[in-house]
User: Fold these one by one.
Assistant:
Number 1:
Amino acid sequence: MALLPRHSLLLLMLAMAVQASAPPPLQRNFYAASCPRAEAIVRRVVRRRAALDRSVLPAMIRLHFHDCFVRAHLPSPSLPFAEALSAFRNIGLSLLDLTALLGSHTMGFCHCGLILDRLYSFNGTGRSDPTMDAGLLATLRDRCPPHTVTPQNESRDAIVPMNLVAPLGPFGLDNSFFPTVLAGRAVLQFDQELTSSSMARRIAAMFAAQPRNFQKQFARSMVKLGSVNVLTGKQGEVRLNCRRDNGTII
């Protein structure tokens, strides 16, 4: 019997450890009777739209994430890593899932209002986050002046890429988030706190070294996330405005 590479063995052990508590998967071809081509139609429309506008891809991942953490369960970017992990475990996801899903932070943009404290007054000290890479600090200060509009008015808030050195740019998904974090160059403090966990650091190192492992686990974790608190039949509603319940629409 051939021995598995050490990184692959770690992934296998973690996957087996959380398998028993994993939520049941969604059913493929659920609409086979009512709309036989539903999945193919969705796939075709998404691919066609993404070919015209690549920003659709990180937007859809964000939508999936927010939808599954519906009604005040979404961890804040300012939440300590341990508390965010607890929030994930409360819905049946593991450290492996959290680490893999954070890999999507190589896509999209971050509002400057979310990181001003790291740049100018970390924890109210009047100084920058001492753990932040000096080169990253200089770049972000250049792009995010101290009087940047805060997230309360995000439509006018300046933005920066979530990963300034992503090879595929802000609209491509690869494993480049992990070497960035391991090098101490994460834009969000929450992302950088991934290295505060020795196990998360080992998982990040595995994903950094083996992109295929990341791709496979990211897909598995997205499916698990989509299986959280699934509503069926007449439960729930299809929102006319995704920002609020239909009953509160004016």
Note: The longest helix spans residues 211-226.
Number 2:
Amino acid sequence: KQQGMIGNIYSMGLALQALEATVKFYAPRKWNCAQAFSVVYDHDYQQPMAIAQVLPALVGRSYLEAADQDCASTSLSPPLSLSPELGTTEVLGALITVRYSIINKLQGTHFDYTTAVQVPAGSTLLKVLQEAAKENPNTFSFQTEQTFWGPMVVSIHGLAANSEDRTYWQFLSSGDALSQGVGTYKPRDGEHIQAVFSTY
């Protein structure tokens, strides 16, 4: 598990803002500021919403202080280094193999299917899902919805998430929930990704 992570990579920006803004007034337990910021520094942010939420924390401000910001007299030191081109993919090289499972033990007819697909190194998890659906559409078909955070998987194998039932598709690697979405997470060669129909 990644030390310093607060929730997942999407929640880090607001969490850091909140902790920095309230540390003088509310401190139920110590938190390692440097460790949390190292998670942010090491991540290649590509989603505009995530960047918008993490930037205030990186410059030591919060949304609450936005009205008082004097842009003319503010300089960033050291300069920030985030993803220079939003939404672009890195140069793809050799093929990697990713195992991909879809599991439903929650509703209706239960199922558990696994496949292995090859994708170019550096591909996102969304590419893995697309390749699995291309090779076996009857089993691995899926649907996404576009959100501010990128594509969100809402249906796999004809089984749709439902807010009334409080169900969703959760993506795991080695039993741990992924800290990024399918549009930005890049699986490693030999990694086993599981999509598990879950409830919250």
Note: The beta strands are 95-104, 111-120, 142-147, 150-156, 159-160, 167-173, 176-177, 192-199.
